[in-house]
Prior knowledge:
By secondary structure, the chain is mainly α.
Amino acid sequence: MSEEKDGGAGKGSTLTRQGSIRRTSLLDAAEAVLVAKGSDASLRAIAGEAGVRVGHLQHYFPTRADLIKAVLERALERSLERLAETTGLRMVRDDPSAIELPEGHTNPDEVVGVVLAEQEDPQLVRLYVEVWALAARDDEIATVVREFYRKYVAHVEAYVQQGRPDWPGEFCRARAETFVALVEGAALMRSGIAGSRSPAMDAQLAQFAVQLLRD
């Protein structure tokens, strides 16, 4: 009897792993098509990139908004992983209050360094730009993007509150919102899409971003 249960559990684990691998493959295809085609990134185009039928894609992601939500969630998860690896600061994607700080609190300069380093990846910046453009024309995608940034701001707010418990909650949130607005807007300039990058601008940007977190 126990052998049958073990066999069933093993089969279930295998199916779960296979589903995870397929989901990852579909998200990889979605990112590639979003970067290459922007507003023309249809479910059909993404399914074609992944080498599957549209129905197979929709089994995992019924709508394009569902797919973009998953793409953004994975991007946030990766950002949090890089932050943990570099600074020791650990946060949970879906629970900003679940924050673990290394002894002595994380240096804001290190946090800002990790955040700005992500803008060194032109493919990642292009992905966000294309998603923003889609959100401007599609209400469902706009809702997904707003939720993504709500979580982003909440993570920053939790970090600010941990470092400055003497600051009122509303003030911490305003600081977090300003930080996200500054960093996300800077991506357009630093990537070369909307301007040219310079060492002086990078230095000023890092300085202002750090000040928003602690001063």
